[in-house]
Amino acid sequence: MFKNKETFKREFTDRIIEKYGRDPKDCHLLECYDILGTMVRDYANVDSKHCKDIVNEKGKKQLIYFSMEFLIGRLLTSNLVNLGIYGVVKDGLSDLGIDFNKLEEEESDAGLGNGGLGRLAACFLDSIASLGYPGHGNCIRYDYGFFRQRIINGHQEEVPDQWLLNGNPWEIRKPKHSVEVKFYGNAETYQDAEGHFRSRTVNALSVLAIPYDVPIVGYGNKVTNTLRLWSAEPADEQLPNTHDFAGYLSFVKDLTHGLYPDDSTEQGRLLRLRQQYFLVSAGMQSMLRAHYRRFHDFHNLPEHYVFQLNDTHPIMAIPELMRLLMDEHNYGWDEAYEICQKCFAFTNHTVMAEALEKWPCHYVANLCPRIYMIIEEINRRILIKMRADNLPESVIQNSLIIKDGNINMCQLAIHVAFSVNGVASLHTNILKKETFKDLYYQYPEKFNNKTNGITHRRWFLASNPRLSGLVTSLIGDSWIKHPDDLKNLLKYQDDKKVLKEILKIKTENKQKLIELVKKENGIELNPDSIFDTQIKRLHAYKRQLLNVFQIISLYQKIKMDKSFTMHPRTFIFGAKAAPSYVYAKKIIELILAVADKINNDLEVNKFMKVVFIENYGVSKAEIIIPASDISEQISTAGKEASGTSNMKFMINGAITLGTLDGANIEISELVGKDNCVIFGLKEDEINTIRYNNSYNPWDIYNADPTIKKVMDSLVDGTFADDYEKFRMIFNEVMYHNDEYFILADFHNYDQARFETEKLYSNKLRWAKMCLINIANSGYFSSDRTIEEYNRDIWHMSKIK
Length: 800
Hints:
By secondary structure, this protein is of the alpha/beta class. Helices cover about 50% and strands about 15% of the residues.
């Protein structure tokens, strides 16, 4: 159907007539998008069938990547590029009077994720397919995503993300592949026909898990894998006496209502636990059924499958596989446990204590009684082993799976899985030396680092066609499949013609963002200003507050000193705060209040403007990142596991202004300190300060007039008529000992920002820095990350 332009036009026209009873010229763009999406999906699924046949015929090992989120964004353009049919489609639509650029705007961002965790998972799926490996994702098909952010009266409001309102042409519903997931009930022991004692769950509440399969298309290699999304529907079984029908329907609906329910309430926490079990039980049952159909045996499961657990959320897959093997397929404990030990690998994404998931024992015991029994037994046997190994009591206590009435999910994963990886060199070292040092002492061979990456095809080739086109014209297109070839750009680092072209393209990209901001914010931006950008999930450790404090200080300088001057700068923010994270939402309110004050002050707005992008997501990032000059990566050292926005900015030629945290460390090592701007306390310095208890923000406040003035502006009516509106922020910094060292890094950050202005004043030098960043960004391709995962953990062979 995509053989050439004429064939495509005929097929497209036929399909649109068959479905909508109209010619293409009479159809709405949304209807045209629907038809085109289904055509591309069907075309990709031909490759999917071929890949499945090869995997089955040759018995190839497959990856199942479990993640609570996959932030895949829009699929149309990337799928057309990967399938090599972009030109055919664009030209064919043009002949039919359809503007492809307008048509692609009809696609909604898939509501399957929120932040870096989900975007990383999406990048991984792209690279797995593009490298030719058989690897598939498992996630929940959320009806309303995380939420759609609205900015109303200067604060964030959350409304449902109705991403499925107009349908989703990429998915195929497969009810014949459904499985039943059971909640609650009772675990009981019985004697089977051979006289063996077995366990089973009775009086359970059953929910039907229906898979919706989305093709994941590899770049130019005819490999198509699958992202399987699970949706919950009522099961055709009699309800237990403890549940009424209306309550049951509500229970089922809530399972896939939205991503990350509010965990500030017990109801929300229980719903999160139900979602996690629903995902892993559905995925495991589906996989085992397919495997048994082929082999009628599970002893060879590790030869055919590996399960990567993306952070703590899917860790219940471990006891669920144990349950299925023992209770449903009559395996003994030892053989089931051995299979699990060979199948599971675990990725940790954080050192933040609140994100290292713990579940109250009674939650799990009530919701999944058999699962709790299995976790208890794993814990008992691990304890016996640790005692037998004569481990110190302190090591044993820190390694327990069940402790103080809670199940420590990371401990469960580390004890059972054969691989445990961090996602940046600093992060992995912190896991070994601090977070899990007692588990590392027992299992040093399990721990390894896999520095995160991004799919350069999505974030450079597709989202920045002008700049990627320039790169291809200079060094050829081998970098698309071999991103390390971007280093060939370095021979142009002193070529003035190339450097000027880079600057020209940046200006063109800025224009697209200027139009977006004008449309959504009603603000006119200066294209000659420095576009200084911080776009990421709103969390205290990411220190959007440090950025805002600097902006406030700059505002105060301009107002005090009438002779003050600076190069114009546009500060760009994009962030969502979790609905129950009150402090993060208050920081957004401050950003908006500061923006309103500055943007409406004629003395100030000629020097700077502040923009907050509402409902920031993948599609908006694809506009913001190519237009940005500076990449703000300013988290407190030792808190950011890796970060991936830093990599996206880097490959698009933005200069990193950041701390030595996460992957910033590797970025600075690759490009050199002359081609990024690094500031702030280092992780070891912060640890020393904490150990010595030698930091007091009041000492800085009382000794530093600049900082005092910034802090006082929060409570003196500068940014709100209500003096108490931002008291929470003042109190959090001053009365909670400035947990993230904002005041400690304030002046160092100020100097670093001034340094970026000096560098920017020499445009050719700046363009050279941009080129050096682009040239060294190939290391951060998720292709490299995936090859390392496969080499050290998964051990799959490519589909050929």
